[in-house]
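subagent[fold] <- orchestrator: predict structure for attached chain, return tokens only, no commentary.
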Amino acid sequence: MSILLGSEAPLPEVEIASPELNLAPRDIEGLLAELREYHAIFSPLFYRKEQGYWALKYMEGLLLDIEHKAVEPMADALEGGNVRAMQQFLGQGAWEDSVILRVHRREVAHTLGTEDGVLLVDGSDFPKQGTESVGVARQWCGALGKVDNCQAGVFVGYASSQGHTLVDARLYLPAQWFTEEYVQRRKRCGVPEDVSFRTKPELAWEMVEEIVAEGALPFSWITFDEGYGDNPLFLERLDGLGLRYLAEVACDTLVWKDRPETYVPPPPPRGRPPSRERLRPEAPSAERVDEIAASLPPEAWSRWIVKEGSKGPIVAEFAALRVVVCRDQLPGPEQWVILRRTLGEKPLLKYYLSNAPEDIPLSEMVWVSGMRWPIETTFEEGKGELGMDQYETRSWRGWHHHMTLTMLAHHFLVRLRLRLQDKAPALTVPQVRLLLRAILPKKTFDASTVLDLVHRIQHRNHAAYLSHRRRKHQQIDGL
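subagent[fold] -> orchestrator:
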């Protein structure tokens, strides 16, 4: 066993200047034209001209400053909005997300691409009522912190020193959705017939493999939480492509400090001779990574600044050592186990495995450990600023269309932030969306349009009342 020692990073004493904001009204007035130029990159990829138009309107709606960003409130607020047309465009429109996203990743590479970029794999969950939305089931919901009714998505993000955004998404369909009981539900939701059950790591692998094959996004690392790090097949596939990963793993992950001896037992007098290796009886047992962390001497730990956070520097203690990973109860590859410990009276520990080369400096793995969190910030921005979780479409196509357009809208905000940073270096993605309030075209209401809106709301409420009433009667009749 070898332990990687690193020099502690001192906390720098720096004078933080007040943020500058040198933007003038003329800088804001041209932002609508920039949105239309950005949309023009993707417009030819839609099958029909009107689809391109509604794609622009949908992105405008996601960028609006309104309370709820389902199709209906967006259409009601947008100049030129139309509820039925936008619903059809989102839920039934025959345009391909994969085509749009390939171009999106190329544009992300132009905006954020650096050779030390990082691919980020993570899931995000969306609480839902009822049972009719595609993929909905009682399952672990990270947004609620408990098992509940929700949809689960698997996402790939990209982060570099320039910023971060999402680059692909897949909806996870639980195994029960592939039973006979769900055949009609899959048809109603438009799940393609060639879609079969995939675990979340399998969905992540499909996206990563496609991104690597394209070659548009430059990156040197891929990182993810233990939901993916605890899947040996996912790690082996990444290793097979030569991808360097930092995988968060569970505290009970088993490793050996030194490679134990194995052997193939001699053939028995009768029967087939054994071919599978086994541990020698005298070989030591594998150890849990949390037990190894507890046994390390104080000098094995060093203090590092992980990154600069919104409330100041994030500081943690790290230790790294070479181990032999346990695979199917046998010794597998030699890798790094990286231990990260927060400061304070009750420190929290995180555990990582990495297939990085033996001569890698600890400072680089410390840096990568801090690069996993941008995807959480991206989810927060997507949900808080763009209505990523406020869709009301129930279909397979609608879910993927909404996520694709949300990704485009988020990347547009990131692009604007970078373009304006010379005049406003402290500008954030939420603040960029705030700037757009001044220029996004909003519907003007006169007496006629207000009456039409109220009439439509009353019809919608009445239809909902009849549906609830019918369900109540069915419950009473069943008693």
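orchestrator: received. Logging for downstream: The first strand starts at residue 3 and ends at 4. The chain has two domains: 25-225+376-438, 247-263+279-362.
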